[in-house]
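Practice problem: predict the structure.
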Amino acid sequence: MLYPTLLAFAAIISPAAEAHPALEDGFAGALRGCEEWVLNPGSWTDGVEPFVSAVGLGNRMGLVAQVDAASLPPVPLRRANHYWRINSTETAGYVLVVSDELPMCHITGGGSLDLQPHVEAVLASDEFEARWEATERSTTGDMTSTVYRNRTDPSFTAVISRADAPGARLDRVQVLVTGTYAASE
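Answer:
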């Protein structure tokens, strides 16, 4: 009878089973930052304090002068960019890239911890689903991509690509989000 108890205990202390709520908080915050920057430019045009407050991550998010090439947005979106590093743990986190000139945002996430279950938890949350509607889904290799339309302003869409299974992409970018606003002509 002791064997099932030991298995349960081992599962609790196993690094694979270890919970990192900061990884979910970081991704949810990056998505809020993405929306806030694009849909509410008044939160940053006269200083970034209102923007940082709206994101809700406090000192876990900060401006940095540059980021690795893997965290840069596609070339057409590399104009007047600002880089926000979101430290979720000591070895994993997210980068939010925004622009003063283009209505866009770009998020990458990676590190030594598996982000996939945390990203999926955020995408399945009531908070996310209240703000975003999935319109398309595809899988290529070990990545699943979903196109989301913002429920408040359908001109704002985001493609969220992430590992399609836990533990699949620890050696490279694990989640990639590109959000753009298509102004009506």
